[in-house]
Amino acid sequence: MTYSVPSQASLLAWITYGESFAGILRQVRVRRQISQQILAELSGVSRSQISNLERTDRFVDPTLSTVYKLAQALEVPPAVLLPGVGELVTPLCAGMAQEGGREEAAVLHPEHVAPFPASYVEQRRRDQRLASQWQQRREWKRPVQRQV
C-alpha cells in the first residue's frame, strides 16, 4: 500500500473548510444564545473541544459523530454545520461561509437559526442531566463479567 503526501493545495482546502466549520459552529451557537458550556451539556461534547472547534487559528477536523452531536444539540440539520455541502471540495470554501454560502440552499444558512428560549434551554439541560444520571446508574448495575 502506498501513501501520498498531501499537496499544499489539498492541505489549504481542508484548512479553509476547518475555518469555515469553526465560524459556522460559533455563529449557530451564538444565534441560539447559548454558551459553550450549555452546548457541551446538551451535546455531550466537552466545552474545551467546542472551544477548539470554534477557533479559527488552528486546523479543526471534527469526527462525524461530533458533528451530529452538535447538530442534535443545536437542533439544526448536520448540513448546516458543514461548509460546502452539495458543492465540490475546493480551496474556495472559506469565502463561501463568510459570504453566506450557497444561494439555492437558503434554508441551510446559519443566519436563519433562531435563539432558544431560556426555559427551553433549562428543560433540555435538566433532561440531559437526568439521562446522564440514568445512564450512569445503568452502568453501575451492569454485572461484572469474569474471565474464566
Automatic annotation (TrEMBL):
- Which Pfam families does the UniProt record give? HTH_3
| SUPFAM superfamilies in the record | lambda repressor-like DNA-binding domains (SSF47413)
HTH cro/C1-type domain ranges (all copies): 25-81
- GO MF assignments: DNA binding
Q: What is the official name of this protein in its record?
A: Helix-turn-helix transcriptional regulator
Please name the source species: Corynebacterium lizhenjunii
